[in-house]
């Protein structure tokens, strides 16, 4: 039987934090958050989930931040940190691909302590080809070429997909795109194949965020939430692991 790289005690701690995060979000009263999470959310985001938990965790983090669910978001952050500890040093690659989205969510909700924690730079050479140099045209194709605006919709004219009985696929489409856009913004200085500058990616990300807010029923502009510089760290935490990226695509 293949040995798992996870520390079993830390894995259980991470899963408890993830489960509590989902529980808080489900009980928030935000209808579409509860609908998006469904019944399997705690299984989907836990360590060693069969559902690609690293990506789902980031989608949940964006959803929680847009719905102003700071308690659920902080629990998810703590789960991610604990999961990374349980995987060290194997966890370095995953956490660094998560950091742009985690930092963005923390900044949006004024969780300044976590925003600072998630700002740790990787050990990248001063010039390294972006994993997205040849992939941006595929992952941002609909934005760069304004594809099918009727399907995706705009703030002024939302997609008909939101008005159906199940808005979950539309949320998934936008949340997944926002994860990628956060990574694009972080990697832009090293090039891309659609000629976008950092501001182009940031603008697209903000537009997607407003569309999510609109559909959740919140005012488009996030309120100035109270600053929270506190960071709850697991016992034994000595910092996020160092990681040196390579130019291979990250598999999004």
List the helices and strands and how they pair.
Elements: H1 8-26, H2 31-37, H3 41-44, H4 53-66, H5 70-87, H6 92-108, H7 112-117, H8 136-139, H9 141-144, H10 149-152, H11 168-187, H12 198-216
Helix pairs in contact: 1-5, 4-5, 4-6, 4-11, 5-6, 6-11, 11-12
Briefly characterize the structure.
This protein has helices at residues 8-26, 31-37, 41-44, 53-66, 70-87, 92-108, 112-117, 136-139, 141-144, 149-152, 168-187, 198-216.
- Sheet of most strands: none
Structural class: mainly alpha
* Proportion of strand residues: under 5%
Order of secondary-structure elements = HHHHHHHHHHHH
Percent of residues in helices: 40-55%
What are the defining features of this structure?
252 residues; mainly alpha
Question: What does this 3D model show about the protein?
Answer:
With 252 residues, this protein is mainly α. 54% of the residues lie in helices and 0% in strands. It has 12 helices and no strands. Helix 4 packs across helix 11 (168-187). The longest helix has 20 residues, at 168-187. The mean pLDDT is 88.
């Amino acid at each position: 039987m293949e040995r798992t790289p996870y520390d079993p005690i830390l894995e259980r701690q991470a899963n408890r934090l993830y489960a509590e995060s989902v529980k808080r979000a489900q009980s928030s009263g935000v209808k579409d958050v509860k609908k998006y999470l469904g019944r399997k959310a705690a299984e989907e985001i836990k360590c060693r989930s069969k559902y690609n938990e690293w990506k789902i965790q980031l989608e949940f983090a964006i959803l929680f931040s847009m719905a102003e669910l700071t308690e659920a978001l902080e629990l998810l952050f703590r789960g991610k940190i604990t999961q990374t500890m349980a995987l060290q040093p194997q966890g370095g690659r995953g956490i660094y691909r998560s950091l742009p989205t985690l930092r963005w969510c923390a900044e949006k909700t004024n969780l300044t302590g976590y925003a600072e924690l998630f700002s740790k730079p990787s050990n990248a050479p001063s010039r390294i080809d972006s994993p997205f140099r040849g992939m941006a045209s595929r992952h941002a194709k609909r934005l760069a070429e304004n594809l099918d605006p009727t399907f995706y919709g705009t703030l002024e004219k939302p997609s008909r997909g939101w008005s159906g009985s199940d808005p979950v696929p539309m949320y998934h489409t936008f949340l997944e795109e926002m994860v990628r856009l956060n990574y694009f913004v972080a990697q832009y200085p090293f090039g891309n194949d659609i000629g976008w500058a950092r501001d182009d990616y940031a603008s697209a990300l903000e537009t997607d965020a407003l569309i999510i807010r609109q559909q959740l029923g919140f005012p488009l502009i996030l309120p100035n939430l109270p600053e929270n510089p506190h960071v709850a760290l697991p016992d034994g935490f000595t910092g996020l692991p160092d990681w040196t990226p390579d130019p291979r695509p990250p598999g999004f």
